[in-house]
Design brief:
Elements (H helix, E strand, L loop, with lengths): L4 H10 L3 E3 L7 H11 L4 H9 L3 E3 L2 E2 L21 E2 L2 E6 L6 E10 L2 E7 L6 E5 L2 H12 L8 H7 L5 E2 L5 E2 L5 H7 L2 H4 L3 E6 L4 E6 L8 E5 L7 H4 L1 E4 L2 H6 L5
Antiparallel strand pairs: 1-2, 2-3, 4-5, 5-6, 6-7, 7-8, 9-10, 10-11, 11-12, 12-13, 13-14
Length: 250
């Protein structure tokens, strides 16, 4: 599944952790010139460069490209040391924290997996399946959501900050899910459940927060929420990823 760039824009422009300004994008020739030096760039990161150009996460700059970029500046994507073997570093946490890089040996469609390198031990950990997923994961943490409300949604967010399909099916990203659950008072009516999306027609998609079954998705009218959507609602899927990939037929 490729990242949803419409929802990525909403996340970028609504996340308190991310700072970026539209209309300051990097020209396509400059992006291609950088790619001639470091290789093809992930699709959602290319979109970020062409849309915003520069930006920061938690006050620390995300690597960028400037016209006539010769790699002189630290924030340059082609600065010395950013490309190390099959790792292309693009972000370092503030105050000497951990670093993040594209794993060029782990392609995921038009993306590359993102790995975190521990500042002290040098050990690596895969944290996202795309640049969009990296921003999604970081926004989830900044919003107090941890990895996600359950492992199924957490997996999705590591690739894309939600999904919006042509048929109106909308699975929320970490920038929207808290507000939607508060609006429909899910915590009061279905305290062990989380509203993960809606069908744009008055029904919501709910999943369990805890317990064994945190893969099943149930559809229930948003005006009819109760304590157990598994009995009052209709089972939609037990494979959210596959269902969305197939067009989210409801």
């Amino acid at each position: 599944m490729e990242p949803d760039l419409t929802l990525l824009r909403q996340l970028v422009e609504g996340s308190p952790a991310v700072r970026a300004t539209p209309s300051r994008g990097v020209p396509e020739p400059a992006i291609r010139a950088a790619e001639s030096l470091v290789g093809g760039l992930p699709g959602s990161y290319r979109w970020w460069l062409s849309t915003y150009g520069t930006g920061s996460l938690h006050g620390s700059e995300i690597a960028t490209i400037v016209p006539d970029d010769h790699g002189d500046a630290y924030e340059s994507l082609i600065a010395p040391g950013r490309l190390h073997g099959d790792r292309l570093s693009f972000y370092d946490e503030p105050d000497g924290g951990d670093g993040y890089a594209f794993a060029l040996d782990r392609p995921v469609g038009q993306e590359y997996a993102v790995v975190r390198r521990d500042h002290f031990t040098g050990e690596e950990e895969e944290t996202a399946q795309s640049f969009a997923g990296f921003l999604s994961v970081k926004t989830a943490l900044a919003n107090g959501l941890g990895d996600g409300p359950n492992p199924t949604v957490a997996r999705l967010w590591r690739t894309t900050p939600g999904v919006l399909l042509p048929n109106g099916v909308h699975i929320y990203g970490p920038d929207a899910i808290t507000e939607r659950n508060a609006t429909f008072e899910v915590g009061a009516y279905a305290p062990h459940w989380v509203l993960v999306g809606d069908d744009s027609g008055g029904s919501g998609f709910l999943m369990r927060r805890h317990g064994r079954d945190r893969t099943s998705v149930y559809r229930l009218g948003l005006g009819a929420l109760d304590a157990d959507p598994s009995t009052s609602g209709a089972l939609v899927t037990d494979d959210l990823w596959g269902w969305l990939s197939g067009g989210g037929t409801v």
